[in-house]
Amino acid sequence: MREIKFKSYIKERDGKIHTFIWEPFSLNSQDYSLLSSEQLIAYGLQFIGLKDKNGVDIYEDDIVNVVYENGQSEIMRIGFDEEKLRFALFDKENENWGFDLYVIIEIIGNKFKNPEFLNK
What we know:
globular
């Protein structure tokens, strides 16, 4: 059975970002205290069911280093393909590459804490 869980990023007005991971129906009243009116932005991102080369869970909007069979690499973003209803790799031009051609994927950040990776 596929594990369903989410990672949330909450950005406060001072720019500080909090991260927490939760499973559906597992939040209690203490968890909701993180979501006060002092927060500016909150994002909920889904676990895609895969791990990177280091065994780290991969979530939607993670930024990954993708290494092709020929040894070349490229930085891409994990996103949801609305047309095919699946998670996929997106390049800097937001072109969908699926997951078919890649050998090694390593998480190097995410679009909230490391937006600079998307501009390189």
